[in-house]
Amino acid sequence: GDSVTQMEGPVTLSEEAFLTINCTYTATGYPSLFWYVQYPGEGLQLLLKATKADDKGSNKGFEATYRKETTSFHLEKGSVQVSDSAVYFCALGAGGSYIPTFGRGTSLIVHP
Amino acid sequence: DTGVSQNPRHKITKRGQNVTFRCDPISEHNRLYWYRQTLGQGPEFLTYFQNEAQLEKSRLLSDRFSAERPKGSFSTLEIQRTEQGDSAMYLCASSFSRSSYNEQFFGPGTRLTVL
């Protein structure tokens, strides 16, 4: 079945450091790919998405490129802020139901 | 727009008791989803409604779980005869089926602890 594998956390960085959170997937067909973010005490929010190969999703300085050849959708940000501290979930949506399959989440902690 | 709301935010119960959670979606959204999230895991899909119709149920949803959305607005999730393994965060999300992607908006969740 469909699955998403993300790097384990926590990822701990200093402010203004470069961020990469790896995500790879297994799916039949051509899924859409997403990154969600969950801030402490809040629900998940869609951060960015890509619906076909080579698409780049971007939002709030975060980017991820849909790489079909490596079945990957790594999240990157050039300069993280303390306010980026949260749990990040990679997810895929396949078929017509739009019900995402989520990875386990990666906790990001950014220190001043 | 007040977003998706869930009540209660926390629930502690004894094993064997029944519990009910409520989700109020964004008012114009016709789809409503329930997920379960345990510590260190991503959300797992339980069930979803389009308007008042329950269209899909996960195999995770045992016969002790039942969900309703009687008027196509708010939804309730009931767990009967709770077990310690039911302890988790229960998330609700809503979406509008005619949006370009069907983006889901999540509520803050209800944290259930079964003693």
Strands, helices and their partners?
The complex is a heterodimer of chains A (112) and B (115).
Chain A: E1 3-6, E2 11-14, E3 19-21, E4 23-26, E5 32-38, E6 44-50, E7 56-59, E8 62-65, E9 75-77, E10 86-93, E11 101-102, E12 106-111
Parallel strand pairs in A: 2-12
Antiparallel strand pairs in A: 1-4, 3-9, 5-6, 5-10, 7-8, 8-9, 10-11, 10-12
Chain B: E1 5-7, E2 10-13, E3 19-24, E4 31-37, E5 44-50, E6 53-57, E7 65-68, E8 75-79, E9 88-95, E10 105-106, E11 110-114
Parallel strand pairs in B: 2-11
Antiparallel strand pairs in B: 1-3, 3-8, 4-5, 4-9, 5-6, 7-8, 9-10, 9-11
What descriptive keywords fit this protein?
heterodimer; A: 112 residues; B: 115 residues; mainly beta; 7-stranded mixed β-sheet; 4-stranded antiparallel β-sheet; 11 strands; 0% helix
Walk me through the structure.
The complex is a heterodimer of chains A (112) and B (115). Chain A is an all-beta fold. Chain A has strands at residues 3-6, 11-14, 19-21, 23-26, 32-38, 44-50, 56-59, 62-65, 75-77, 86-93, 101-102, 106-111. In chain A, strands 2, 5, 6, 10, 11 and 12 form a six-stranded mixed beta sheet that branches. In chain A, strand 7 (56-59) and strand 8 form a beta hairpin. Chain B starts with a strand and ends with a strand. In chain B, strands 2, 4, 5, 6, 9, 10 and 11 form a seven-stranded mixed beta sheet that branches. In chain B, strands 1-3-8-7 form a four-stranded antiparallel beta sheet, with no helix packed on it. The model of chain B has no long low-confidence stretch (mean pLDDT 91). Chain B is mainly β. Chains A and B meet through strand 6 and strand 11 of A and strand 5, strand 9 and strand 10 of B.
The count of strands of chain A amounts to 12
* Uncertain regions spanning at least 5 consecutive residues of chain B: none
The number of helices of chain B is 0
Binned strand content of chain A: over 45%
The assembly state of the depicted protein chains is: heterodimer
SSE string of chain B, helices as H and strands as E: EEEEEEEEEEE
Largest sheet of chain B: 7 strands, mixed
Strand content of chain B: over 45%
Number of β-strand runs of chain B: 11
Given the structure, what is the number of helices of chain A? 0
Which descriptor suits the 3D outline of chain A? globular
Query: Structural class, from secondary structure content of chain B?
Result: mainly beta
Q: What distance separates the N and C termini of chain A?
A: 41 Å
Largest interface: pair, residues per side: A-B, 21 and 22 residues
* Main beta-sheet annotation of chain A: 6 strands, mixed
Shape of chain B: globular
Q: Which radius of gyration of chain B do the C-alpha atoms yield?
A: 13 Å
Let me know the average pLDDT of chain B.
91
Q: In sequence order, what are the helices and strands of chain A, one letter per element?
A: EEEEEEEEEEEE
Q: How much helix, percentage-wise, in residues of chain B?
A: under 10%
